[in-house]
């Protein structure tokens, strides 16, 4: 993911935590979601893949370097049974379903996922940062 943006939700939580001492508990697991168009800063789920076999996948990150974290393990989605469309955006959420979007951004390359394809993010290929 290039040019990541914080969601409105996370922007609010971070500024309240840092400047007003309002507690924020980070999620124990974060999930990668796939989108066919931008979810926008509000985190709209309208363009998230919605086929029956699709499910957000847990993702882990290594320690930051200059404010950027990279995924620390491969993330593989289940094989598509039907066409998912052109995956052009990804998002990171605090829940496997619904929940709050934390970050989002355009996929480095738009990939068309057709039946039998597996969408996979290789270790170190997803970067998330504060910019």
Short description:
The protein is mostly beta strands and 131 residues long.
Could you outline the blueprint of secondary structure elements for this entry?
Layout: E1 5-6, H1 8-20, E2 30-35, E3 57-59, E4 68-70, E5 75-76, E6 85-93, E7 101-113, E8 120-121, E9 127-129
Antiparallel strand pairs: 1-7, 2-3, 2-6, 4-9, 5-8, 6-7
Verbal overview:
With 131 residues, the protein is mainly beta. The chain has one domain (5-124). It has one helix at 8-20; strands spanning 5-6, 30-35, 57-59, 68-70, 75-76, 85-93, 101-113, 120-121, 127-129. The strands form 3 sheets. A 5-stranded antiparallel β-sheet has the order 1-7-6-2-3. The mean pLDDT is 95.
Task: Sum up the structure in keywords.
131 residues; five-stranded antiparallel β-sheet; mainly beta; two-stranded antiparallel sheet
Q: In terms of per-residue confidence, which ranges show pLDDT below 50 for 5 or more consecutive residues? A: none
Task: Kindly report the spatial arrangement of strands forming the biggest sheet.
Answer: 1-7-6-2-3
Order of helices and strands: EHEEEEEEEE
Which structural category fits the helices and strands?
mainly beta
The largest pleated sheet is described as: 5 strands, antiparallel
Beta fraction: 25-35%
Round the Cα radius of gyration to an integer and report it. Answer: 15 Å
The number of distinct structural domains comes to 1
Mean pLDDT: 95
- The count of β-strands is 9
Per DSSP, the total helix count is: 1
Anisotropy-based shape: globular
Helix content: under 10%
Measured distance between first and last alpha carbons: 13 Å
